[in-house]
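Request from the bench team (R.T.):
"We need a structural guess for the complex before ordering more zinc ion. Sequence and SMILES attached. Just send the tokens back."

Command: build protein-zinc ion structure.
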Amino acid sequence: MTEMQLSLINFPYREMLSNIFQDYSNDFEFTASGIFRKIVPPLCPECGHPMSHNGFNTCQKRHLGGANVGKYLCGACGKSTEENRDFWVNLKADFLGIITEICTRLRLNHVSYEVIESIMGYLYPRDKDTIRNMVQCAIDEMDIPPVKNIQFVHYDEQHPKAGRNQKYRLTLLDSVTRQVIADELYDSKDADTIESFLRRNLDTQKQIFIVTDLYRGYSDIFKRVFGNKVIHQFCLLHLNKLIVNDFPRKTSIEQELIKYRLLNIFYDREPEIEFLSCLIEEEKTMKQRSDKEYKSWIKEAKNAFHKFVRDLELKRRRENKNLKQRDYYEALNNFKILKMQSDSFMISVRKRLAKIEELWPNLTAFYFVDNAPATNNPIENFYSASLKTHRKKQLEELGIKEQIKLSALKKAGVFGRPQKTLLDAFFMFIPFLDTG
Ligand SMILES: [Zn+2]
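Reply to R.T.: structure attached below.
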């Protein structure tokens, strides 16, 4: 333990000082005038002659204070040395570490560097380039813990622009832990890029279940990479989006009913179907009347229907429920009935039904594996939280990479509760604020 010569000035900080110098042996002293040095000066590193005390150097940190570190002089050869200042370096690192943590948390929540700079003006002023450097160095040093025991995986892509360059973000998310397996930025998303991305980040020898959207190229890539060890599920919510897009924006009640019957294959949409069925006869009658009369009728009918759908949605949200998933035989049955009537539907619906039939094994794979996911919802939510569509246009490549790494760290639970407050770190500087 370092010997403390307590003056009236540093006396109140006795405990703090012994804390700061706890790692040093009792060969050291902290003098009444605030100099940290060896009690007995060391031997000269050049000639081995005992050196003598020779004043001090002051290490300064703006806004925080300064510490005096002893100097030694060799009387024989004139060599001058300085005592090790690690204690000071550590104090600064502690303090700036917390500042960096605060800035990183703000970045995690999409606060711009401009705003962080202005917030830091109240805490510890730093310019935004310095802050950016601190945050990026800290993120680079943090490792994303690897996900263990991967069985169910979500794969998706995002196409952010870095300035004027089109980039492709490829992402693998673990379905069970929702942790990021891999999340990388590329200049292309061709089959070779996706293939090497998968090979590098997944164990190709193990059985795996992957959910993707309905882009067709994936199946071939997965077969090349995993052989027969892969089960490929198409996201059912993506299918639902495609179904909705098959219809014009202004549908008749009859078309709307067919739309909901398609949505009803995999999810329970009976209430909506019932509501629309009640209007079908009325629509037939109204269509006999003038164009104007029908138009004002359909407008009102659709408004009532949309309100009905919205209320159902709100009710589900209040009760924290999702749309009820159909079991396999309900889904199969609903599909068969639609397929039988296929000829009476418009062309886009007929094509959609043919597509569903073709992709049936990939749409229903989840039914045959316990706890398997049917949608890519987790990755959609992850994307919207990590790189919002309205922001992804404005970021430079470095900014995109920063957000990608930050959200992976967050998912992995790397950001825990703080160990120390900024005030804790600041109080350690009190003995050095004014050394007298
Ligand atoms: Zn010497």
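Two things stood out. Residues 138 and 226 are 36 Å apart (CA to CA). The first strand starts at residue 3 and ends at 4.
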